[in-house]
Amino acid sequence: MDGAAPGVVPTGTGACEPGRSAPAGAERLTFEFGGLDRDYELSVPPEYDGTRPAPLVLSLHGFTSSIEQQDQASDLPRAAGERGYVVVTPLGEEISAEVGGSVLTGPFFNVTPWLGTQQEPGFAVQDDLGFVTSLLDHVKTRLCIDAAREYVTGISNGAGLTMALVCERDELFAAAAPVAGITMNVVCPAKRATPLVALHGTADSAVPYGGGNLLGLPISIPPVEKRVTDHATLGGCDPEPAQDRPGADIRHSVWKCPPGQAVELYTVEGGGHTWFGASTRHGGQPMAGDTSSIDATEVMLDFFDEHRLS
């Protein structure tokens, strides 16, 4: 297959030969990287047959969260699986860090607002950019994956890693969807602007929508709208977006972009640091900071469905 890794279908080709069969459903696995056995979950959609190339979503949790919590909040294994997507959900390495006067302990993806990796006491020093890209390469040796339809999303710390991947591995993903976590305080150095749909709440106290201190730490980040506008500028889009209201508490900004580019921002007015729609997905009342106007998962999957690498 023109030098592609086994199981990977180059853009414009048909079936995988030989096929890469796998049972449908979620499986917890480990992958060795950097001398560590790293945990991840591989969710295979019901219609996967091992020969037809499947799209893939990389799903990244927030700090102190877990694979199970990311699955529950996003519902991606089910929702993306129904559309034929393979979902890969890795687990960060556990750290302890002082945040807002309290010590928090839990899984963490090693990425900073400067897009590099932490090298400070108390923080894991592993290369998580290298980990997740190597993990995807590994998955693509096991399954028949469409190389033109790989996507990434994450919340909070996972959204920070999403943006680091978009900026540092700009050739890899067809589209990206950061939720509550555009934390960069540097301009993205990418040559290609990956199509992007971002979702963020105006009442997010951890990653302030209007800019300010990240997690209450002395780390200043710019407003979300500025960073999304910067990404639109990188893609050659118009500087001012058009706006519409898909819900009373939702402001949807869409930048006019050249063919192959797309940038959108869903601003949830009064929205907090959460995966939007998670608490109302099954008919419940929205929890504080959530909304019943949109479901972040359906928004991003609709966006992913529209984009592929050329």
From TrEMBL:
GO CC terms in record: extracellular region
Protein name (Swiss-Prot/TrEMBL): Poly(3-hydroxybutyrate) depolymerase
Signal peptide interval: none
One GO process term, biological-process aspect: xylan catabolic process
GO molecular function: feruloyl esterase activity
Gene3D superfamilies per record: alpha/beta hydrolase
Taxon lineage: Bacteria, Bacillati, Actinomycetota, Actinomycetes, Frankiales
Protein's organism: Frankia nepalensis
UniProt keyword annotations, A-Z: Carbohydrate metabolism, Hydrolase, Polysaccharide degradation, Secreted, Signal, Xylan degradation
Positions of region (Disordered): 1-23
Subcellular localization: Secreted
Main location: secreted
